[in-house]
Design goal:
CATH superfamily of the largest domain: GntR ligand-binding domain-like
Helix content: over 70%
Largest sheet: 2 strands, antiparallel
CATH class of the largest domain: Mainly Alpha
Strand order of the largest sheet: 1-2
Shape: globular
Structural class: mainly alpha
Order of helices and strands: HHHEEHHHHHHHH
Number of domains: 2
CATH topology of the largest domain: Four Helix Bundle (Hemerythrin (Met), subunit A)
Number of helices: 11
């Protein structure tokens, strides 16, 4: 096998790992010598393969800084839509409709295709989320919520679902945080979202694909409704602050 053919094979192997989420954005690859040994290839062949991936924007190599997987597959989707969403709030509804389809299908496919390792990862993510709920740890809860849904997306073994899910979580991160904080102030709603995550996990673990899809769909409908309530609540808070500032200014003037 000649050098160019071998470098293509190496590049294709690493690219597949990136597409599958085995190598995630921000992850640093092992040093060149170690990675070449792992792959059973020469360092010149590996170096050429990494250059091919860099030309596609999938990795970034810096002298003395190693090689890091970029977020190209996510940012290429996220960056233009983030700007559009900031200028067109009505697009939030469209985004949630898309998430509605994506997450229910991810749950269905994950139930049908998940390996034992996938199930273990989803279970670990759910356990972390449950612990965060129990300890009332909001920052961990926000992170664990994203990790739970991403673990399900990855278990679908569909590269587009994996990366679109990661992109959506980047895109709506601030809204997810605001929404969870709003739900946390309402114990009944907070319990609802906790029960919904439990239902998704239990149906996936039980191997009931349709029930898992239904549970995910019910969860997103609830999220969609609560995010509307969050926006309304934020609007009322701002209105109250404006009135307070107005009254304060009027008092000083008098």
């Amino acid at each position: 096998m000649d050098l160019i053919r071998l470098s293509d094979t190496i590049a294709n192997d690493l690219e597949r790992r990136i597409l599958e989420g085995v190598l995630s954005a921000g992850e640093r690859l092992p040093p060149e010598r170690e990675l070449a040994k792992q792959l059973g290839v020469s360092r010149p062949s590996l170096r050429e393969a990494l250059q091919k991936l860099a030309s596609k924007g999938l990795v970034r190599t810096r002298q003395g800084g190693g090689t890091v997987v970029t977020d190209r597959l996510q940012s290429g989707f996220v960056d233009p839509w983030r700007a559009m969403l900031s200028g067109n709030p009505a697009l939030q509804h469209d985004l949630l409709e898309f998430r509605h389809m994506l997450e229910s299908q991810a749950a269905l496919l994950a139930t049908e295709r998940a390996t034992e390792l996938d199930i273990e990862r989803i279970g670990d993510a759910f356990g972390t989320l449950e612990q965060a709920y129990a300890q009332d740890d909001m920052s961990t809860c926000i992170r664990a919520d994203v990790e739970f849904h991403q673990a399900i997306a990855d278990a679908s073994h569909n590269a587009l679902i994996t990366h679109l899910s990661a992109s959506l979580h980047m895109l709506i991160h601030d809204h997810v945080e605001q929404n969870l904080q709003y739900l946390h102030r309402h114990p009944d709603k907070w319990q609802n979202i906790r029960d919904q995550h439990r239902a998704i996990w239990h149906t996936i673990r039980a191997g009931n694909a349709q029930a898992a899809a239904d549970a995910a769909r019910e969860h997103i409908v609830f999220v969609q409704k609560s995010m509307s309530e969050t926006a309304l609540d934020a609007s009322r808070q701002e209105s109250a602050k404006r009135r307070l500032r107005g009254h304060s200014g009027a008092t000083k003037a008098s």
